[in-house]
Amino acid sequence: MTEGKLKKDGTPSHAGEGGGNELIFKSEEEFFEKIKSYFTRKSKKGKPISIAGLLVHLDIGRSTWSDYGQRYSHTYTLAKLRIEEWWAERLGSANSAGAAFYLKNAFHEHFKDRFENDITSKGESLFNPTPELVATAAEILKELDQKNGRI
Fold first, then answer.
1. pTM beyond cutoff 0.70
2. Which domain holds residue 89?
3. Whether 83 contacts 106, CB under 8 Å
4. CA 69, CA 66: separation in Å to the nearest integer?
5. N or C, which end of the chain has less CB nearby within 10 Å?
6. How many CB atoms lie within 10 A of CB 54?
7. What are phi and psi of 9, to 5 degrees?
């Protein structure tokens, strides 16, 4: 019998066997209850909620959070929407700059100061001058430089 790699706690590691990280939350219900406990605790204390605070409460990093988003998408989406809602409700207050800042950074796909439009064709320039046009433009610029005493 060959022994596999062990994790720091002495349990077998399944890394490299297609297993990925071991799940902290074995079911969506467990994941939901832990998220709910974060919202309840913050609400009782009157403290703001955030994605970073939730991740600390769950004891996971952003990449693991993203993994759970794929596995338990319904609960993941509801949690993000609840946090977004909390901050959006603060936009109507007299001092809403912090809420606007948080929304623009944490939910940048939905909250922006401006919209950027790509007026090119899939990243390619719409202006594709022919070699003749480039040569003509170079001639004109050369003539202008000569008239102005630059050459």
1. no
2. 28-106
3. yes
4. 5
5. N
6. 20
7. -85, 5
Number of domains comprising the chain? 1
6 is a domain residue: no
* Ranges in the chain, pLDDT < 70: 1-21, 107-123, 125-126, 150-151
Q: How far apart are CA 119 and CA 33, in angstroms?
A: 46
Distances (CA, A) of 46 to 42, 56, 135: 6, 18, 69
- CA 37, chain centre distance (Å): 24
What are 89-113's pLDDT values in tens digits? 877 777 777 777 777 777 656 556 6
Does residue 120 sit within a domain?
Answer: no
**What helix, strand, coil percent values describe the chain, rounded to 5?**
55, 5, 40
Q: Which residues of 102-134 are buried (b: 16+ CB within 10 A; e: fewer)?
A: bbeebbeeebeeeeeeeeeeeeeeeeeeeeeee
CA 104, 109, 115 angle in degrees (round to 5)?
Answer: 80
Question: CA 32: distance to chain centroid?
Answer: 21
